[in-house]
């Protein structure tokens, strides 16, 4: 059960089946969050619903990754799903897209302040914290775009 949840309902397992590597699994997890976020936009859900889902996903990520916390297995992507949901809170239109892209790039390249350090935390905190921080950077970028347009 935890493996299914940790892999964002199996999405994190797809890259290994397709190209024999976990490379790209995080993007599958982020795409799952984008799908959820898109449905919330379509349904005109208030911002706090997205926030509640992001917080719940973060808690689930911390729980689901416990058996796999001996490293950060590539197929564990519920953390990317949680971080991406954080990036989308209260945004729409171009700001939503910018937040999504910034969060994903921040997680992949880990060059923004604190992300690499967050990844170095022990256990599930390290698995999840870098993605949460990347999501916060994405959210900040989205708010900046909102303020400018």
Secondary structure blueprint with pairings:
Layout: H1 2-6, H2 14-19, H3 25-42, H4 47-64, H5 78-87, H6 93-109, H7 115-119, H8 123-148
Helix pairs in contact: 3-5, 4-5, 4-8, 5-6, 5-8, 6-8
How far the N terminus sits from the C terminus, by CA atoms, comes to 44 Å
Number of strands: 0
How would you spell out the order of helices and strands?
A: HHHHHHHH
Q: Estimate the global geometry from the Cα principal axes.
A: globular
Number of domains: 1
Classify the helix fraction into a percent range: over 70%
Report strand %: under 5%
Pick out the low-confidence regions: none
- Count of separate DSSP helical elements: 8
Question: Structural class, judged by helices and strands?
Answer: mainly alpha
Mean of residue pLDDT values = 96
Largest sheet: none
Radius of gyration: 14 Å
Please give a structural write-up.
Helix 4 runs antiparallel to helix 5 and helix 5 (78-87) packs parallel to helix 8. The protein is 70% helix and 0% strand. The chain is an all-alpha fold. The model has no long low-confidence stretch (mean pLDDT 96). It has eight helices and no strands. 44% of the residues are buried. It has one domain.
